[in-house]
Structure formats: C-alpha cells, structure tokens
Amino acid sequence: MARLILGSSSPRRRELLHLLRVSFEVIPPKGVEENLSERFCEKELCELSHLKAKNVMLRNPFSTVIAADTVVVLDGLVLGKPSSVEEAYEMLLVLSGRTHSVFTSVSVMYEESEFSFVEKTDVTFREVPSEVLKEYAESGLSLDKAGAYGIQDYGALFVKSIAGDFYNVMGLPIGRLWHELHARGVI
C-alpha cells in the first residue's frame, strides 16, 4: 500500500482513522480557505475536501491522501466553527430542542485515481437549559467544532437521538470510508 496521509489537523479525525488499523501520517493542508457560503451547498462542501486532498497530494506525490470537511446545517444554513464564546452560545441556543444535519465530505486521492462522497447524519437535541449551554460555550470545548458542540465530549448530553453514522458527527464517517477504500483495493 502507498504511504497513507490524513490531510487534516483534526485530532478527532486522527483518532478515528486509527480504527482502520493501518499506518498513516498526518499532514494538514496549507493555505486552504474554509470559507463556505452561508446557505448549504453539497457541491461546495465536496470542492473544499477535494481542494484539501489536492493541496496535500501536490506536496506528497505517490501517496494516498484522505481529506474531509464537516458542517452542521440547520434550516439550510451552515453553522461552522464559532469565532467566539458568544457565537458558540448563540449556535447552541438555536440547536436546542431541534433536529439538524451533519454533513461530511471525504475526498481520497491515490495513484491516478480519486473519489469523494458525502455522508449525512441527522441529530436531534434535547431542550437544554440556557445556563447549561452558556457554561458549555464558556468551557472552550465548542470553539473548534462545527455547530459549536462535540458529540464525543460534554456536548453528548444534549443529544436526544441520531439517525445515521455517529462517527460522521465526530468528523469522519469511518465505516463508509473503510468500505470505499476496501472496495477499490486501496486498503
């Protein structure tokens, strides 16, 4: 197998890729803007993960590169990573008691081939008291996460139900990724 590279700086994606039980390196993309439109567009999300994979592949030819991008979407609007505690709190208030969707686009480049896919998971939040949401936002846990929460940390307490891949909500639909890589003989 060619050298496997995770083109991401996300510690959660690194943790999840270990589930494949293969050796890999982490080389984040450089200079790739993550500016998505306010309105969700699946094509735009795919282009972003593709751009990240290509950025890493150009610096590391003859490798297999995996890159991904995850967004939270509510009522057609993208909730990205909050830029402040206040913005995180506002996002959490909007999510409380409602169902939102988490989309992850994964792009893989290897040899002369490449492919991408998008995984969707619907997440329903419980009605959460505003003071609890404020405490979570102030903890700093929400600042590096799309939608301002992590399902793998204290944010899990807000979740009432999930329809789809749990690991997609963490940022990498590892089961689908394994299937896609295995079906193509990459791993």
From TrEMBL:
<dbReference type="InterPro" id="IPR029001">
    <property type="entry name" value="ITPase-like_fam"/>
</dbReference>
<dbReference type="GO" id="GO:0005737">
    <property type="term" value="C:cytoplasm"/>
</dbReference>
<keyword id="KW-0963">Cytoplasm</keyword>
<comment type="similarity">
    <text>Belongs to the Maf family. YhdE subfamily.</text>
</comment>
<feature type="site" description="Important for substrate specificity">
    <location>
        <position position="12"/>
    </location>
</feature>
<dbReference type="GO" id="GO:0036221">
    <property type="term" value="F:UTP diphosphatase activity"/>
</dbReference>
<dbReference type="InterPro" id="IPR003697">
    <property type="entry name" value="Maf-like"/>
</dbReference>
<dbReference type="GO" id="GO:0009117">
    <property type="term" value="P:nucleotide metabolic process"/>
</dbReference>
<feature type="active site" description="Proton acceptor">
    <location>
        <position position="69"/>
    </location>
</feature>
<dbReference type="Pfam" id="PF02545">
    <property type="entry name" value="Maf"/>
</dbReference>
<dbReference type="GO" id="GO:0036218">
    <property type="term" value="F:dTTP diphosphatase activity"/>
</dbReference>
<feature type="site" description="Important for substrate specificity">
    <location>
        <position position="70"/>
    </location>
</feature>
<keyword id="KW-0378">Hydrolase</keyword>
<protein>
    <recommendedName>
        <fullName>dTTP/UTP pyrophosphatase</fullName>
        <ecNumber>3.6.1.9</ecNumber>
    </recommendedName>
</protein>
<feature type="site" description="Important for substrate specificity">
    <location>
        <position position="152"/>
    </location>
</feature>
<keyword id="KW-0546">Nucleotide metabolism</keyword>
<comment type="function">
    <text>Nucleoside triphosphate pyrophosphatase that hydrolyzes dTTP and UTP. May have a dual role in cell division arrest and in preventing the incorporation of modified nucleotides into cellular nucleic acids.</text>
</comment>
